[in-house]
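User: Quick sanity check before I run a bigger batch. Here is a single chain. Can you write out its predicted 3D structure?
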Amino acid sequence: MDVCDIRLHNGAPTLHINGEPVFAPMLTTNKNPHNTGNKDWRPDPYFEDFYRAGFRLFQIQVEGDIGGFDRCYDPETDSFPSEGYDYSCEVLAEYARRCPGIKVLLRIMPEPRGKNSKWLQMHPEQMELMEEKWQSHNYENPSYASDLWLNDACRYIKRFGEELIARGLGDNVLGFLIGGGNSCEWVKSGPMEDWASDYSEPMQIGFRNWLKEKYGTDEALRAAWGKDDVSLEDDLVPSPEAQNATELFLFKHPVRHRDSIDHYEYLAHRVAYDICKLSGAVKEVSNRSWLAGVFYGYLQEMVWNDGFFGQGDLTCDTEHSAAARSGHAGFAEVLASPDVDFFCSPYGYGFRGTGGEGGFMSPYESVRIAGKLWMSEEDFRSLNWDPDSGYGQPNDLEEQLNLLKRQFSNILIHQSSAWWCDWCKPTMGSYDEPNTMKLFERMVKLGQHNIKMPHRETAAEIAIVIDAESSFYRSTLNNIDIPNWRARGWAMARMGAPVDFVMLSDILEGRAKEYKMYYMLNTFHLSDENRAKLKGILERDNKMTLFIYAPGYASDETLDVENVSKLTGMNVILRPRRWSVNIMPTNFEDPIMKATPTSMFWGTDMQLGPIFAIDTKGTDAVPLATSVAQQGRFETGFAIARRENYTYAYSVAPLVPACILREMAREAGVHIYNNDEDVIYAGHDYVMLHTVRTGKKTITLPRTANVVDAFSGEAIADNVNEFSFDMKSGETKLFYFGDLPIED
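Assistant: Done. Predicted structure follows.
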């Protein structure tokens, strides 16, 4: 069979087919297969439209009655007979007949689901079990900790692969996108509804065995948990009350709440283990010729819940985050697996419309560091969708084209792949419009050109650092998560320079490159060893670092404001209170504050607790802005300390605005492309601007070059390092300033 794999190409992980690098745009169709019960082929002209536009990669969803686990499983023989795979194989064969040479990514759900599942009827003890008060809401699905399910899921995948190969379809398969949870995204209902789980027998056994491996003896467990009445032979999944308990408002004590911290850590590990095992089945059956990947690692976005989506249980609160209970914090473990080739997510849900940004949900630079490919699910709500479909749906064709250009620019500049979803119901044809399809043709040409570029590694000089495990040490409330989530679209994307989202573990272990500026977004827990290691990285080479809210507040033993002071080198005050915290600039003479409007406030009206402040008297810390918090306290809330080899800035509230981030970056020596606070993406040869305000824009390049409008092919300027142009509100421009001409 053809060999599809991910290899490094000119500095970036890239899809290769038989050793040749390939740009990888895809269309996802829902037309065939389908869940209507009607197995007749439905004409799919839109699939062929994309084929004519140059697409050779596609995605098909295989689930439910079409060919998912329950469709294929025979309980009488405990096997997966050939005929269970007939329909999905027939669909793939028909697409391959109509569009020769295509390869298809098969989206599969290897979980039995629902009341009618024969597998779950045979094995009810393997089902996930919610906390008692929500058991009437249980969704019938296997526990993530069920080895019986996992082994059968691997059997399902291997039998699928065997059938594809036996029917001569092996060369038409790109790989498998392996789903889990309720939406294929490895998130179950419990985290989205804030229901404590999983109390099933498999989860109790799995957690117990993990604790035995970690602690070894009852005495060690009791010391770690600070409890004298626990044993490694007990059922130890913490009660709902224990899972929700905190020491001081948002924070768990690292010892007294170690039971729930350990539970969340085990859950993350178990989800990662499942993903790696299932991916290994794909590799085994294909002799490593097919890709395997997952929706996973939503560390920037798993702060929402069913309240955000307006779905699920209507009595569900909207104040919680799904982060700790989702299992997505096992990201580093999955990144390290040789059997997982790619990761994906829908593009960010929070700010998709005009003037927003379409960032990825996971720290994609960590994906690239691991040698994996990032794939963005572009589930764009086009004009052909029903009105009021939400999620940034455009108002007219011009807006639609500009939003598609913005999204494609993000994919191109980050050397990623993507699929566009034809989910316009009931007629399909989300992109059935001539100008839109013409744009897709241009996208294919630009992507094929980009594959040839000599420097495809990141050009960012700023790291947004995310701690995967921070949520273990906090309540499930999203009080700090939501404003940190907003910061990406409201500030980071508008600071005038590109940024990389990187996991803290990659920084600490030296896998990430050196950056000029670090934005420590949620580093609320640091062991003493990791605090020392981090300071050793940040306190050299004149680096600039911004800390947010409670950096290092939790160690492995304590919750202590002194931990924050030790990390930042500033005198930090803790107020054991809970209230909104907002920041008012006061020192406009400092270089990083001069561009800040007098009326610029930042922070959050969501309650934070505890509350922090900075005492700068008699220290090298310069006060920049004042915190307005509980009791109307007026204390320093933003300060900077410029030291011999490094600079630390600390804001006790989130959402530091773009104008301040830009000046911090400038002071750190970061190249600034634009000062207008429009959305910007930039690489070694491309820079994109997506505007909010109409007017003249200026871009400063990092080198002298010829400039071309990438979408139109129009020459903009020759031999320049700065150029200006007019743009309308909501417009997107992608400029190419490389040395390899774009062939029209």
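The two ends are 33 Å apart (CA to CA).

User: Great, the batch can go ahead then.
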